Amino acid sequence: MRSALTFLVATSIGLLAGNASASADLAKAKNCTACHAVDKKLLGPAFKDIATKYANDKDALAKLSKKVREGGAGVWGQVPMPANPQVTVDEAATLVKWILGAR
Question: For 22, how many CA atoms within 13 A lie in the half-sphere containing its CB?
């Protein structure tokens, strides 16, 4: 029983780490990292800063997923975020979930 529990915990951790890695790879593949970094501001805000800003916003997933695809301006300054229509709705949600977990 103990070895089964250990296996389940290790497998869960591996899946979570794999998902985080896959999302980081998706962010790179969709060119998010051209303007954003996890822990520092580039052209756009750091993913950690985005996660902190939206931590208590129950609508953050929908709001930010839309912003990933349609772009926007004014929330983080005057530099606009371009639209990313090449990012699917599902990919946008995956990216935003990963970003919101960056704190």
Answer: 9
Domains and CATH numbers, the chain: 2-100 (1.10.760.10)
Measured from the Cβ of residue 10, the count of other Cβ atoms closer than 10 Å reads 10
pLDDT in tens, 14-71: 444 445 677 999 999 999 999 999 999 999 999 999 999 999 999 999 999 999 999 9
CA 91 vs. chain centroid, Å, equals: 10
For every residue of the chain, DSSP letters joined together read: -HHHHHHHHHHHHHHHHHHHHHHHHHHHHTTGGGTB-SSSBSSS--HHHHHHHTTT-TTHHHHHHHHHHH-B-SSSSSSPBPP-TTS-HHHHHHHHHHHHT--
Token pair, residue 81, equals 């975020």
Q: 53 and 43 in contact (C-beta within 8 Å)?
A: no
